[in-house]
Amino acid sequence: MTFTLIYTNSYIKRASKFAKKHPDLLSQYEKTLKILERDPNHPSLRLHPLKGKSKGLYSVFINVSYRITLLFFVTEKEIILVDVGHHDEVY
């Protein structure tokens, strides 16, 4: 089962800033997106719901310090990307 990743304009801007700031993480970031598209429940992503002010969003790991936050619609097979960045920035 393949999911459709939705890149909003605000996400594209954030991802562009992330890429410029962290060129060393681009291969990990791209790998994360490919896995997310194929299987959001893949163990390496560590998909989990967020709490508090981010309730309703989910998060996946790029690595131990960096995350992608997203809206996850299982019934529509769509994943809307919301933010990317350091753990402390996206939560």
By CATH reckoning, the class would read Alpha Beta
| Beta-strand content bin | 25-35%
Order of helices and strands: EHHEEEEH
Mean pLDDT figure = 91
Helix fraction, binned, reads 25-40%
The helix count comes to 3
Compute the CA-based radius of gyration.
12 Å
Structure description:
There is one protein chain. This protein has 91 residues and is of the alpha+beta class. The protein has a single domain, classed as RelE-like (YaeB-like fold), CATH 3.30.2310.20. Helices cover 33% and strands 30% of the residues. The chain is built from 3 helices and 5 strands; from the N terminus they run βααββββα. It has a 5-stranded mixed β-sheet. Strand 4 and strand 5 form a beta hairpin. The longest helix is centred in the N-terminal third of the chain and has 13 residues. It is globular and about 35 Å long. It starts with a strand and ends with a helix. The mean pLDDT is 91.
Overview features:
single chain; 91 residues; alpha+beta; YaeB-like fold; 5-stranded mixed β-sheet; 33% helix; 30% strand; globular
Question: What's this entry about, in short?
Answer:
This protein has 91 residues and is of the alpha+beta class. The chain is built from 3 helices and 5 strands.
